[in-house]
Amino acid sequence: MKNTLAELGKLSKFVAISLPVVLSIFLVRMQSLADQELSPLECRVKKWDIPVSLTGENQNALPQKQKVPLIERLPITCCQGDTSCLDEVLYGEISDKKALVSAIARSLQYLRTANAAAAYQNYPVAGITRDRVFKSLTRFRELLLKTNSATELHQAIEREFVLYQSVGNNTKGSVLFTAYYEPLYAASRVPTAEYRYPVYRLPPDLKSWPKPHPTREELEGADGLQGAKGKLRGLELFWFRDRLEPYLAQIQGSAKLQLPDGTQTTIGYAGNIAYNYKSIGRELIDDGKLPQEGVTMPTILDYFQKHPQELDIYIPRDRSFVFFQENYGQPAQGSINVPLTAERSIATDKSLMPPGALALIRASIPFANPTGMEEQIISRYVLDQDAGGAIKGAGRVDYFLGTGKIAGDRAGVTVSNGQLFYLLLKSKN
Description:
This protein has helices at 41-44, 52-55, 58-61, 97-111, 114-121, 130-146, 150-160, 216-220, 244-252, 280-286, 297-306, 311-314, 405-412, and strands at 31-32, 70-73, 161-166, 175-182, 184-188, 197-200, 236-240, 254-258, 264-272, 322-326, 345-347, 358-369, 372-386, 396-403, 416-425. By secondary structure, the chain is an alpha+beta fold. The strands form 2 sheets. Strands 4-14-11-13-12-15 form a 6-stranded mixed barrel. It has a 6-stranded mixed beta sheet with strand order 6-7-5-8-9-10. The longest helix is centred in the N-terminal third of the chain and has 17 residues, at 130-146. Mean pLDDT is 87; it is low at 1-38.
Protein backbone atom coordinates (compact mmCIF):
# COMPACT_ATOMS: atom_id res chain seq x y z
CA MET A 1 0.00 0.00 0.00
CA LYS A 2 1.54 3.08 -0.76
CA ASN A 3 0.82 6.45 0.39
CA THR A 4 2.82 9.46 -0.01
CA LEU A 5 2.32 13.05 0.22
CA ALA A 6 5.71 13.84 -0.95
CA GLU A 7 5.35 12.46 -4.31
CA LEU A 8 2.27 14.07 -5.50
CA GLY A 9 1.97 11.75 -8.09
CA LYS A 10 3.98 8.89 -9.02
CA LEU A 11 1.71 6.02 -8.87
CA SER A 12 1.27 4.02 -11.88
CA LYS A 13 0.22 0.90 -10.06
CA PHE A 14 -0.18 -1.91 -12.37
CA VAL A 15 -2.66 -4.61 -11.40
CA ALA A 16 0.19 -6.94 -10.55
CA ILE A 17 1.94 -4.33 -8.44
CA SER A 18 0.44 -3.58 -5.07
CA LEU A 19 -0.46 -0.28 -3.57
CA PRO A 20 2.71 1.68 -3.13
CA VAL A 21 3.88 4.29 -5.41
CA VAL A 22 6.91 6.31 -5.05
CA LEU A 23 7.11 9.48 -3.33
CA SER A 24 8.90 12.60 -4.12
CA ILE A 25 10.09 11.88 -7.56
CA PHE A 26 9.55 15.40 -8.47
CA LEU A 27 11.73 16.53 -5.70
CA VAL A 28 14.25 17.73 -8.17
CA ARG A 29 17.01 18.67 -5.79
CA MET A 30 18.78 15.47 -4.73
CA GLN A 31 20.82 15.65 -1.54
CA SER A 32 23.79 13.31 -1.43
CA LEU A 33 25.09 11.62 1.66
CA ALA A 34 28.42 13.11 0.76
CA ASP A 35 27.04 16.49 1.83
CA GLN A 36 26.51 15.41 5.42
CA GLU A 37 29.30 16.44 7.80
CA LEU A 38 28.79 13.80 10.44
CA SER A 39 31.94 11.68 10.42
CA PRO A 40 35.16 11.15 8.44
CA LEU A 41 34.70 10.80 4.70
CA GLU A 42 35.83 7.17 4.64
CA CYS A 43 33.10 6.37 7.18
CA ARG A 44 30.40 8.44 5.54
CA VAL A 45 30.72 7.38 1.94
CA LYS A 46 33.68 5.45 0.59
CA LYS A 47 33.20 2.20 2.47
CA TRP A 48 29.52 2.08 1.52
CA ASP A 49 30.23 2.19 -2.21
CA ILE A 50 30.55 -1.08 -4.11
CA PRO A 51 34.28 -1.68 -4.69
CA VAL A 52 35.33 -1.45 -8.32
CA SER A 53 36.85 -4.91 -7.99
CA LEU A 54 33.37 -6.38 -7.47
CA THR A 55 31.73 -4.73 -10.44
CA GLY A 56 34.56 -4.02 -12.83
CA GLU A 57 33.66 -2.96 -16.32
CA ASN A 58 31.69 -6.10 -17.11
CA GLN A 59 28.51 -4.92 -15.37
CA ASN A 60 28.31 -1.77 -17.48
CA ALA A 61 28.97 -3.72 -20.66
CA LEU A 62 26.05 -6.11 -20.12
CA PRO A 63 22.63 -5.48 -21.69
CA GLN A 64 20.13 -4.02 -19.22
CA LYS A 65 18.20 -7.28 -18.85
CA GLN A 66 21.38 -9.18 -17.96
CA LYS A 67 22.75 -6.82 -15.32
CA VAL A 68 22.94 -8.32 -11.84
CA PRO A 69 20.96 -6.14 -9.40
CA LEU A 70 22.79 -7.27 -6.25
CA ILE A 71 26.49 -7.73 -5.50
CA GLU A 72 27.68 -9.92 -2.61
CA ARG A 73 30.08 -8.33 -0.12
CA LEU A 74 31.05 -8.58 3.53
CA PRO A 75 29.21 -6.54 6.18
CA ILE A 76 30.42 -2.97 6.54
CA THR A 77 32.67 -2.47 9.57
CA CYS A 78 31.69 0.54 11.63
CA CYS A 79 34.18 3.36 11.96
CA GLN A 80 34.94 4.41 15.52
CA GLY A 81 32.55 7.15 16.53
CA ASP A 82 30.40 6.76 13.43
CA THR A 83 27.09 5.91 15.08
CA SER A 84 25.21 6.50 11.82
CA CYS A 85 26.16 2.99 10.74
CA LEU A 86 24.21 1.43 13.66
CA ASP A 87 20.46 1.02 14.09
CA GLU A 88 20.58 2.55 17.56
CA VAL A 89 16.85 3.26 17.80
CA LEU A 90 16.35 -0.48 18.42
CA TYR A 91 18.00 -0.04 21.82
CA GLY A 92 16.93 3.49 22.71
CA GLU A 93 14.86 4.66 25.66
CA ILE A 94 11.80 3.86 23.57
CA SER A 95 12.86 0.60 21.95
CA ASP A 96 11.76 -0.09 18.39
CA LYS A 97 12.43 -3.81 18.68
CA LYS A 98 8.75 -4.72 18.93
CA ALA A 99 7.93 -3.04 15.62
CA LEU A 100 10.82 -4.76 13.85
CA VAL A 101 9.96 -8.15 15.33
CA SER A 102 6.37 -7.67 14.14
CA ALA A 103 7.54 -6.77 10.63
CA ILE A 104 9.78 -9.85 10.57
CA ALA A 105 6.86 -12.07 11.59
CA ARG A 106 4.82 -10.70 8.69
CA SER A 107 7.58 -11.46 6.21
CA LEU A 108 7.93 -14.99 7.61
CA GLN A 109 4.19 -15.39 7.16
CA TYR A 110 4.52 -14.36 3.51
CA LEU A 111 7.51 -16.63 2.88
CA ARG A 112 5.39 -19.65 3.82
CA THR A 113 2.91 -18.96 1.01
CA ALA A 114 2.61 -20.31 -2.51
CA ASN A 115 3.01 -16.77 -3.81
CA ALA A 116 6.44 -16.58 -2.20
CA ALA A 117 7.42 -19.93 -3.67
CA ALA A 118 6.47 -18.67 -7.12
CA ALA A 119 8.27 -15.35 -6.64
CA TYR A 120 11.54 -17.04 -5.73
CA GLN A 121 11.35 -19.82 -8.30
CA ASN A 122 13.17 -17.82 -10.95
CA TYR A 123 14.87 -15.21 -8.81
CA PRO A 124 17.70 -13.69 -10.89
CA VAL A 125 20.48 -13.58 -8.24
CA ALA A 126 22.28 -16.88 -7.62
CA GLY A 127 22.34 -17.94 -3.98
CA ILE A 128 19.23 -16.02 -2.91
CA THR A 129 16.46 -18.53 -2.29
CA ARG A 130 13.25 -18.49 -0.32
CA ASP A 131 14.66 -21.01 2.16
CA ARG A 132 17.80 -18.94 2.73
CA VAL A 133 15.79 -15.75 3.19
CA PHE A 134 13.50 -17.53 5.67
CA LYS A 135 16.42 -18.90 7.71
CA SER A 136 18.15 -15.53 7.65
CA LEU A 137 15.08 -13.78 9.04
CA THR A 138 14.66 -16.43 11.72
CA ARG A 139 18.28 -16.15 12.87
CA PHE A 140 18.28 -12.35 12.75
CA ARG A 141 15.19 -12.30 14.97
CA GLU A 142 17.00 -14.52 17.50
CA LEU A 143 19.99 -12.18 17.53
CA LEU A 144 17.77 -9.12 17.79
CA LEU A 145 15.97 -10.48 20.86
CA LYS A 146 19.08 -11.53 22.75
CA THR A 147 21.47 -8.64 22.05
CA ASN A 148 21.61 -5.59 24.31
CA SER A 149 23.11 -2.94 22.05
CA ALA A 150 23.28 -1.91 18.41
CA THR A 151 27.02 -2.58 18.43
CA GLU A 152 26.51 -6.11 19.77
CA LEU A 153 23.92 -6.83 17.09
CA HIS A 154 26.18 -5.41 14.37
CA GLN A 155 29.09 -7.58 15.53
CA ALA A 156 26.89 -10.69 15.43
CA ILE A 157 25.83 -9.81 11.89
CA GLU A 158 29.48 -9.42 10.87
CA ARG A 159 30.14 -12.96 12.10
CA GLU A 160 27.13 -14.74 10.65
CA PHE A 161 25.83 -12.79 7.64
CA VAL A 162 26.90 -11.58 4.25
CA LEU A 163 25.44 -8.55 2.49
CA TYR A 164 24.03 -8.33 -1.01
CA GLN A 165 24.24 -4.68 -2.03
CA SER A 166 22.06 -3.12 -4.70
CA VAL A 167 24.16 -1.92 -7.61
CA GLY A 168 22.00 1.21 -7.57
CA ASN A 169 21.65 3.53 -10.51
CA ASN A 170 25.38 3.82 -11.19
CA THR A 171 26.78 0.31 -10.44
CA LYS A 172 28.50 1.85 -7.40
CA GLY A 173 25.55 1.34 -5.07
CA SER A 174 23.90 4.77 -5.18
CA VAL A 175 20.15 4.42 -4.53
CA LEU A 176 17.56 7.20 -4.59
CA PHE A 177 15.37 7.17 -1.48
CA THR A 178 11.93 8.70 -1.25
CA ALA A 179 9.19 8.03 1.29
CA TYR A 180 5.47 7.39 1.42
CA TYR A 181 2.75 7.31 4.06
CA GLU A 182 -0.94 6.69 4.73
CA PRO A 183 -2.92 9.97 4.68
CA LEU A 184 -5.87 10.77 6.93
CA TYR A 185 -8.80 12.48 5.19
CA ALA A 186 -12.34 13.48 6.08
CA ALA A 187 -14.80 11.53 3.92
CA SER A 188 -18.44 10.47 3.70
CA ARG A 189 -20.23 7.30 2.66
CA VAL A 190 -22.86 9.39 0.88
CA PRO A 191 -22.55 12.43 -1.36
CA THR A 192 -23.52 15.78 0.12
CA ALA A 193 -23.07 19.42 -0.80
CA GLU A 194 -19.82 19.29 1.17
CA TYR A 195 -18.56 15.84 0.11
CA ARG A 196 -18.64 15.76 -3.70
CA TYR A 197 -15.49 14.06 -5.03
CA PRO A 198 -15.61 10.25 -5.06
CA VAL A 199 -13.17 7.37 -5.12
CA TYR A 200 -14.39 4.19 -6.78
CA ARG A 201 -14.61 0.44 -6.32
CA LEU A 202 -12.95 -1.88 -8.79
CA PRO A 203 -15.27 -2.40 -11.79
CA PRO A 204 -16.29 -6.09 -11.81
CA ASP A 205 -15.86 -6.18 -15.58
CA LEU A 206 -12.52 -4.34 -15.74
CA LYS A 207 -10.75 -7.32 -17.33
CA SER A 208 -13.17 -7.19 -20.25
CA TRP A 209 -12.71 -3.47 -20.88
CA PRO A 210 -11.29 -2.99 -24.37
CA LYS A 211 -7.83 -1.46 -24.65
CA PRO A 212 -6.74 1.20 -24.71
CA HIS A 213 -8.68 1.80 -21.54
CA PRO A 214 -10.54 5.08 -21.09
CA THR A 215 -8.28 7.69 -19.50
CA ARG A 216 -8.76 9.38 -16.16
CA GLU A 217 -10.47 12.34 -17.86
CA GLU A 218 -12.76 10.06 -19.84
CA LEU A 219 -13.72 8.21 -16.65
CA GLU A 220 -14.35 11.08 -14.22
CA GLY A 221 -14.24 14.25 -16.30
CA ALA A 222 -11.82 17.13 -16.06
CA ASP A 223 -13.50 18.31 -12.84
CA GLY A 224 -13.63 14.87 -11.22
CA LEU A 225 -17.43 14.99 -10.97
CA GLN A 226 -18.59 13.18 -14.11
CA GLY A 227 -18.03 9.55 -13.09
CA ALA A 228 -21.74 8.80 -12.67
CA LYS A 229 -22.30 9.51 -16.38
CA GLY A 230 -20.16 6.63 -17.63
CA LYS A 231 -18.43 3.39 -16.69
CA LEU A 232 -18.00 4.39 -13.04
CA ARG A 233 -21.69 4.87 -12.30
CA GLY A 234 -22.71 3.03 -9.13
CA LEU A 235 -19.11 2.25 -8.18
CA GLU A 236 -18.68 5.22 -5.84
CA LEU A 237 -17.12 4.10 -2.55
CA PHE A 238 -16.53 7.30 -0.52
CA TRP A 239 -16.80 11.02 -1.19
CA PHE A 240 -14.24 13.70 -0.29
CA ARG A 241 -14.50 17.46 0.20
CA ASP A 242 -11.45 18.46 -1.80
CA ARG A 243 -10.67 17.75 -5.47
CA LEU A 244 -7.07 16.92 -4.66
CA GLU A 245 -7.65 14.44 -1.83
CA PRO A 246 -9.02 11.46 -3.82
CA TYR A 247 -6.20 11.97 -6.29
CA LEU A 248 -3.59 11.95 -3.52
CA ALA A 249 -5.20 8.79 -2.12
CA GLN A 250 -4.63 7.18 -5.51
CA ILE A 251 -0.99 8.22 -5.43
CA GLN A 252 -0.54 6.80 -1.94
CA GLY A 253 -2.55 3.67 -2.70
CA SER A 254 -4.40 3.77 0.62
CA ALA A 255 -5.89 6.18 3.15
CA LYS A 256 -7.44 6.36 6.59
CA LEU A 257 -10.82 8.08 6.56
CA GLN A 258 -12.52 10.13 9.29
CA LEU A 259 -16.30 9.88 8.78
CA PRO A 260 -18.87 12.51 9.84
CA ASP A 261 -20.24 10.29 12.63
CA GLY A 262 -16.81 10.21 14.30
CA THR A 263 -15.86 6.70 13.21
CA GLN A 264 -12.85 5.82 11.10
CA THR A 265 -12.22 3.31 8.35
CA THR A 266 -9.54 2.62 5.76
CA ILE A 267 -9.39 2.10 2.02
CA GLY A 268 -6.73 0.27 0.05
CA TYR A 269 -5.64 -0.39 -3.48
CA ALA A 270 -7.87 -2.75 -5.48
CA GLY A 271 -6.74 -2.28 -9.08
CA ASN A 272 -5.99 0.22 -11.82
CA ILE A 273 -6.36 0.95 -15.50
CA ALA A 274 -3.53 0.30 -17.94
CA TYR A 275 -1.78 3.65 -18.00
CA ASN A 276 1.48 4.71 -16.40
CA TYR A 277 1.40 7.43 -13.79
CA LYS A 278 2.42 10.93 -14.89
CA SER A 279 3.69 13.33 -12.24
CA ILE A 280 1.69 16.55 -12.15
CA GLY A 281 4.58 18.10 -10.26
CA ARG A 282 6.77 17.50 -13.28
CA GLU A 283 4.04 18.94 -15.50
CA LEU A 284 4.03 22.15 -13.44
CA ILE A 285 7.79 22.40 -13.78
CA ASP A 286 7.69 21.78 -17.53
CA ASP A 287 5.03 24.49 -17.91
CA GLY A 288 7.20 26.98 -16.05
CA LYS A 289 4.76 27.21 -13.15
CA LEU A 290 7.38 25.96 -10.68
CA PRO A 291 11.18 26.28 -10.69
CA GLN A 292 13.41 23.53 -12.07
CA GLU A 293 15.03 22.98 -8.66
CA GLY A 294 13.92 22.90 -5.06
CA VAL A 295 10.40 21.60 -5.70
CA THR A 296 8.87 19.53 -2.90
CA MET A 297 5.43 18.22 -2.19
CA PRO A 298 4.62 21.17 0.07
CA THR A 299 5.60 23.44 -2.84
CA ILE A 300 3.14 21.66 -5.12
CA LEU A 301 0.33 21.71 -2.56
CA ASP A 302 0.91 25.39 -1.94
CA TYR A 303 0.65 26.09 -5.67
CA PHE A 304 -2.73 24.38 -5.94
CA GLN A 305 -4.01 26.09 -2.81
CA LYS A 306 -3.33 29.39 -4.56
CA HIS A 307 -4.60 28.16 -7.96
CA PRO A 308 -7.31 25.54 -7.23
CA GLN A 309 -8.88 26.02 -10.64
CA GLU A 310 -5.75 24.53 -12.22
CA LEU A 311 -6.41 21.14 -10.61
CA ASP A 312 -8.87 20.54 -13.44
CA ILE A 313 -6.02 21.15 -15.89
CA TYR A 314 -3.25 19.13 -14.32
CA ILE A 315 -4.94 16.13 -12.70
CA PRO A 316 -6.46 15.00 -16.04
CA ARG A 317 -2.96 14.96 -17.57
CA ASP A 318 -2.29 11.88 -15.46
CA ARG A 319 -4.19 9.25 -17.43
CA SER A 320 -3.73 6.55 -14.76
CA PHE A 321 -6.58 5.76 -12.38
CA VAL A 322 -6.72 3.62 -9.23
CA PHE A 323 -9.67 1.76 -7.69
CA PHE A 324 -10.15 1.04 -3.98
CA GLN A 325 -11.72 -1.35 -1.54
CA GLU A 326 -12.78 -0.64 2.03
CA ASN A 327 -10.47 -2.33 4.51
CA TYR A 328 -12.48 -1.49 7.64
CA GLY A 329 -9.61 -0.11 9.69
CA GLN A 330 -6.97 -2.64 8.71
CA PRO A 331 -3.48 -1.16 8.32
CA ALA A 332 -2.00 -0.36 4.94
CA GLN A 333 -0.81 -3.47 3.15
CA GLY A 334 2.14 -4.01 0.87
CA SER A 335 2.46 -5.83 -2.42
CA ILE A 336 3.20 -9.13 -0.64
CA ASN A 337 -0.19 -8.82 1.13
CA VAL A 338 1.05 -8.22 4.66
CA PRO A 339 0.54 -5.05 6.75
CA LEU A 340 3.26 -2.44 6.48
CA THR A 341 5.20 -1.27 9.53
CA ALA A 342 6.14 2.39 9.93
CA GLU A 343 9.91 2.95 9.57
CA ARG A 344 10.40 -0.81 9.00
CA SER A 345 8.89 -1.48 5.57
CA ILE A 346 10.22 -0.48 2.17
CA ALA A 347 9.02 -0.68 -1.42
CA THR A 348 11.36 -1.74 -4.23
CA ASP A 349 11.19 -3.11 -7.75
CA LYS A 350 10.01 -6.67 -7.13
CA SER A 351 11.24 -7.86 -10.52
CA LEU A 352 14.75 -7.33 -9.12
CA MET A 353 14.67 -7.39 -5.32
CA PRO A 354 13.82 -10.34 -3.01
CA PRO A 355 10.27 -9.98 -1.63
CA GLY A 356 9.91 -10.18 2.13
CA ALA A 357 13.66 -10.18 2.70
CA LEU A 358 15.57 -8.44 5.47
CA ALA A 359 17.43 -5.34 4.33
CA LEU A 360 19.62 -2.59 5.73
CA ILE A 361 19.08 0.91 4.38
CA ARG A 362 21.41 3.87 4.84
CA ALA A 363 20.10 7.26 3.81
CA SER A 364 19.47 10.83 4.92
CA ILE A 365 15.93 10.98 6.35
CA PRO A 366 14.08 14.04 7.72
CA PHE A 367 12.76 13.99 11.29
CA ALA A 368 10.31 16.45 12.80
CA ASN A 369 11.45 18.68 15.64
CA PRO A 370 9.93 21.80 17.28
CA THR A 371 11.49 24.09 14.68
CA GLY A 372 10.79 22.04 11.55
CA MET A 373 12.61 19.15 9.88
CA GLU A 374 16.11 17.90 10.62
CA GLU A 375 18.02 15.62 8.25
CA GLN A 376 19.82 12.65 9.80
CA ILE A 377 21.84 9.93 8.13
CA ILE A 378 20.42 6.70 9.50
CA SER A 379 20.91 2.99 9.16
CA ARG A 380 17.74 0.92 9.61
CA TYR A 381 16.96 -2.76 9.36
CA VAL A 382 13.81 -3.05 7.26
CA LEU A 383 11.67 -5.60 5.45
CA ASP A 384 11.11 -5.44 1.70
CA GLN A 385 7.33 -5.75 1.70
CA ASP A 386 6.00 -3.44 -0.99
CA ALA A 387 6.26 -2.26 -4.58
CA GLY A 388 5.16 0.75 -6.56
CA GLY A 389 4.55 1.74 -10.13
CA ALA A 390 7.14 4.51 -9.89
CA ILE A 391 9.72 2.37 -8.09
CA LYS A 392 11.69 0.89 -10.94
CA GLY A 393 15.22 -0.43 -11.21
CA ALA A 394 17.94 -1.24 -8.70
CA GLY A 395 18.40 2.43 -7.83
CA ARG A 396 15.05 3.17 -6.13
CA VAL A 397 13.66 2.64 -2.63
CA ASP A 398 10.47 4.04 -1.11
CA TYR A 399 10.46 4.14 2.70
CA PHE A 400 7.13 3.77 4.56
CA LEU A 401 6.82 6.40 7.31
CA GLY A 402 3.41 5.54 8.78
CA THR A 403 0.05 7.32 9.01
CA GLY A 404 -1.04 10.92 9.43
CA LYS A 405 0.17 14.48 9.04
CA ILE A 406 3.66 14.22 10.53
CA ALA A 407 4.41 11.15 8.41
CA GLY A 408 3.08 13.05 5.40
CA ASP A 409 5.16 16.13 6.15
CA ARG A 410 8.29 14.00 6.41
CA ALA A 411 7.45 12.01 3.30
CA GLY A 412 6.91 15.18 1.33
CA VAL A 413 10.51 16.30 1.78
CA THR A 414 12.28 12.93 1.76
CA VAL A 415 14.73 12.59 -1.09
CA SER A 416 18.35 11.51 -0.77
CA ASN A 417 20.94 9.19 -2.20
CA GLY A 418 21.89 6.23 -0.02
CA GLN A 419 22.56 2.51 -0.08
CA LEU A 420 20.50 -0.68 0.11
CA PHE A 421 21.78 -4.04 1.41
CA TYR A 422 20.10 -7.41 1.93
CA LEU A 423 21.24 -9.57 4.85
CA LEU A 424 21.62 -13.30 4.30
CA LEU A 425 23.22 -15.99 6.45
CA LYS A 426 26.57 -17.21 5.27
CA SER A 427 26.11 -20.28 3.17
CA LYS A 428 27.78 -22.53 5.74
CA ASN A 429 25.03 -21.68 8.19
